[in-house]
Amino acid sequence: MDKHVNMVWLIAILLFSGLIYLLGPILTPFLIAAILAYIANPLVNKINGFQIKKFSPSRTLATLIVMALLLGTLLLLLLIVIPLLQKEIILLAQKLPVYFNAAKTLLEPWLLKNFGIALTVDFVQIQQILTDNWQTAGNFAKNIALGLSTHSIAIAGWLANLILIPLVLFYLLLDWNIIIEKVSHLIPRKRIAKTQLIASEVDAVLAEFLRGQLTVMLLMSVFYAAGLWLVGLELALPIGILSGLLGFIPYLGFGLGLLLGILSALLQFGNLQDLIPILIVFGLGQVIESMVLTPYLVGDRIGLHPLAVIFALMAGGQLFGFAGVLLALPVSAAIAVGFRHARTQYLQSQFYTGNHS
Q1: Are residues 157 and 220 located together in one domain of the fold?
Q2: What is the DSSP letter of 249?
Q3: Which of 37, 60, 152, 266 is deepest in the core (most CB within 10 A)?
Q4: Rounded Cα gap, residues 17 and 5, in angstroms
Q5: Chosen domain end from 152, 186, 220
Q6: 176 vs 310, which has greater pLDDT?
Q7: 329: pLDDT confidence band, cut at 50, 70 and 90?
Q8: Is 227 exposed, middle or buried (0-12, 13-18, 19+ CB in 10 A)?
Q9: Which of 88-97, 98-107, 147-156, 197-206 has the highest mean predicted lDDT (pLDDT)?
Q10: Are 332 and 326 in contact (CB under 8 A)?
Q11: Could you say which DSSP state residue 348 is in?
Q12: Per-residue pLDDT tens over the stretch 140-172
């Protein structure tokens, strides 16, 4: 009977996994909302349980407060990123002719000598075009309207996901404890103790992961901002904060920060020698993050081998895109807990010990 029940459960899990895979393209907003709900639920519980005299916030009010905090954090990131990009574009438009002239001075003799080609590009005219286009930004709304009509289906899907994430997040946070309780009632009673044990270990591992990852992000933000400030970069604070906070997506924070740092240094200093301190800051940051902070604060706590981390990130991205990358390490850590229990059970089994008495 137990074998029959186990087979039914195995088939159900396989069918559920296949369904999840097939629905992968539309699951991204639900996965992102589920991740945020798992992270934010403890804070909702604390606010919901907070009491001043006879007043205690309802679950709905606590959920709205937490969602407002999440929205505020997102707006803060946008306020950091948008002025940074705007300033970069303005500097680029101003200094682009200088770089064009330098490139012409270096390349034109070589092209004439080897290929008989002369550069006849009017760099002043290019600058004027860039300046005019930048100053006539009033046509921006018109261009957006044209883009919306051309790519209406893709943009509509993107907007639907953008609206769906907070909506799903609201209902998940509102009913999170109820959902968990209902799921626990579906677990066979003879397996409930073991399931609760594994679930508590998974929760502890994920909590360690989130705390460790948040600590790494904050420390790297401070390091990059301080390091870039010490080498004299004007945009040290926004680039440093952005590089550190985007560190939760492997290589994105480092890669984007390095690119913005190099571009800012070129626009500010104007020569290649001044790029060396920028490269040193990001090189040291990568060494500190990958060899000290992440292994100590994240990797060692979730118990994943580096090869397992790489595979998990690639598999998550392949199956679920951006949300899969976010979900890869926490899910892998949870699976690792299950494997540890399965290994213990296997080592104690008659099949392994050979004791059939």
Answers
A1: no
A2: S
A3: 37
A4: 18
A5: 186
A6: 176
A7: confident
A8: buried
A9: 197-206
A10: no
A11: T
A12: 444 545 554 555 565 666 677 778 888 999 999
Considering the domain architecture, whether residues 160 and 74 belong to the same structural domain is answered as yes
Of the candidates 196, 244, 257, the one whose C-alpha atom is nearest the C-alpha of residue 217 is: 244
Q: Which two tokens stand for residue 325?
A: 């990358």
Q: Are 175 and 42 in contact (CB under 8 A)?
A: no
Q: How many domains are there within the chain?
A: 2
The candidate with the shortest Cα–Cα distance to 218, out of 244, 196, 193, 242, is: 244
- 178 and 39 share one domain: yes
Which ranges of the chain does DSSP label H, i.e. alpha helix?
2-22, 24-49, 59-115, 123-135, 140-150, 152-186, 192-230, 236-245, 252-269, 275-288, 294, 300-302, 306-347, 350-353
Q: Which long-range contacts (C-beta less than 8 Å, at least 24 apart) are formed by 221-227?
A: 221/245, 223/285, 223/288, 224/257, 224/281, 224/282, 224/285, 227/281, 227/284, 227/285
Query: Do residue 118 and residue 217 come from a single domain?
Result: no
Closest CA to 261 of 287, 288, 279, 245: 279
| Residue 309 token pair | 């981390």
Pick from 170, 186, 202: which residue ends a domain?
186
Residues 84 and 103 both lie in one domain: yes
Burial 29-41 (b: 16+ CB within 10 A, else e): bbbbbbbbbbbbb
Give the model's confidence band at 217: pLDDT under 50 very low, under 70 low, under 90 confident, else very high: confident
The Cα–Cα gap between 116 and 102 comes to 19
**Exposed e or buried b per residue across 94-122, where buried means at least 16 C-beta atoms within 10 angstroms of its C-beta:** eeebeebeeebeeeeeeeeeeeeeeeeee
Angle at 279 between CA 285 and CA 215, to 5 degrees: 15
Range of the domain at 63: 24-186
On whether both 32 and 125 belong to a single domain, the answer is: yes
Give the residue from 223, 220, 218, 224 showing the smallest Cα distance to 239. Answer: 224
Is residue 276 a contact partner of residue 194, using CB atoms and an 8 Å limit? no
Task: For residues 254 and 348, state if they share a domain.
Answer: yes
Helix (H, G, I), strand (E, B) or coil at 271: coil
